[in-house]
Amino acid sequence: MKILHIFKTEPDDVTDTLVEAWGGINEVTRICLYQKPVDYDQLIGLIFESDRVLCW
Asked: What is the structure's pLDDT at 48?
């Protein structure tokens, strides 16, 4: 399963732990909107390719 995590702000320790828990057998991708520049074309492609999208 492909899981996309989109971060609006820098994740804290609890968020990092939850993201790690989603890992394992899943393919996990992280996109950080707080780090510039953001490739929005790539982001849209990743959203449509992913089975789940989680926004933090």
From this structure: 98
